[in-house]
Amino acid sequence: MATPMHRLIARRQAEANKQHVRCQKCLEFGHWTYECTGKRKYLHRPSRTAELKKALKEKESRLLLQQRSFFSPLCLSALEKLM
């Protein structure tokens, strides 16, 4: 159970920490979200599909580089001639 003294201390601590608080709505420092009077900022994030495609492309390129480093240039030219 919070006494009036505990409430006063909690309120003072909350006011003191406001400089380090970022509003989740407008992304500015110095106030809490429930105190915000600004507009909501649009934060562009890539879609999940775009993230998965990017990861797949990176994985394929790494695999291709590993395969190229595994075979010597002479072997690669010989393999290309066979195909």
From TrEMBL:
InterPro entries: ZCCHC10 (IPR039715), Znf_CCHC_sf (IPR036875). Signal peptide: none annotated. It comes from the Eukaryota. One of its GO terms (molecular function) is nucleic acid binding. It holds the Pfam family zf-CCHC_3. SUPFAM superfamilies: Retrovirus zinc finger-like domains. PANTHER family: ZCCHC10 PROTEIN, ZINC FINGER CCHC DOMAIN-CONTAINING PROTEIN 10. This is Zinc finger CCHC-type containing 10. The lineage of its organism: Eukaryota, Metazoa, Chordata, Craniata, Vertebrata.
